[in-house]
């Protein structure tokens, strides 16, 4: 099976292939772009998706005339959460949403506009002090949200219900695609939501033991 093809500047890559950008090898040779065999069901590679979403987020901040970071000084035990532009969907614009404060009070908010700037703030540092933070190039980029939920997967459900939902998701994304999704959210929620992380990890291991990890 062919693993890569020459990249066509006019036609792009055929179905089942993603563009690998040109790069300079360790010996100083310039390697031209090629079409490489896709490892996901998406037409866009994970790397290109992350770049596109992050670029869109930066553009939103620029249009709002705000920066992602500030000179905010956080006390020990807290870290700065970057500023961002929050966008509201049609349902939220119509029905609003509920916010629960630490005091226990709940507020119902109905947005007056489709987007709002959320300024940088100091939030509790939930990271593991023993683990060195990854370099920017090794960090997990933006996630494709709601792709397991649309098949009925919610970590609070009973195990059999979750597994039934995962079987449906496998039909769309393949065993390897679903495994990767569970693996990422299990790692990201390890400190912020330990209970959810344990469920994601258990379901990830169940999938690995019951399916061949292929697309």
Helix-strand string: EEEEEHEEHEEEEHH
Shape from CA axes? globular
The counted number of beta strands is: 11
Q: Could you describe the largest sheet, including whether it forms a barrel?
A: 3 strands, antiparallel
Beta percentage is 15-25%
Please tell me the overall pLDDT.
85
How is this fold's topology laid out?
Elements: E1 4-6, E2 17-20, E3 23-24, E4 30-31, E5 34-37, H1 46-63, E6 78-81, E7 84-87, H2 90-95, E8 97-100, E9 106-109, E10 115-118, E11 121-124, H3 159-188, H4 194-210
Antiparallel strand pairs: 1-5, 2-5, 3-4, 6-11, 7-10, 8-9
Helix pairs in contact: 3-4
Question: How would you explain this protein's 3D organization?
Answer:
The chain has 215 residues and is α+β, with helices and mostly antiparallel strands. Among the domains are: 38 residues, no CATH class; 27 residues, no CATH class; 62 residues, no CATH class. Helix content is 33%, strand content 18%. The protein has a three-stranded antiparallel sheet, with no helix packed on it. It has a two-stranded antiparallel sheet with strand order 3-4. The chain is globular, with a radius of gyration of 21 Å. The protein starts with a strand and ends in a 5-residue tail after the last helix. The relative contact order is 0.10.
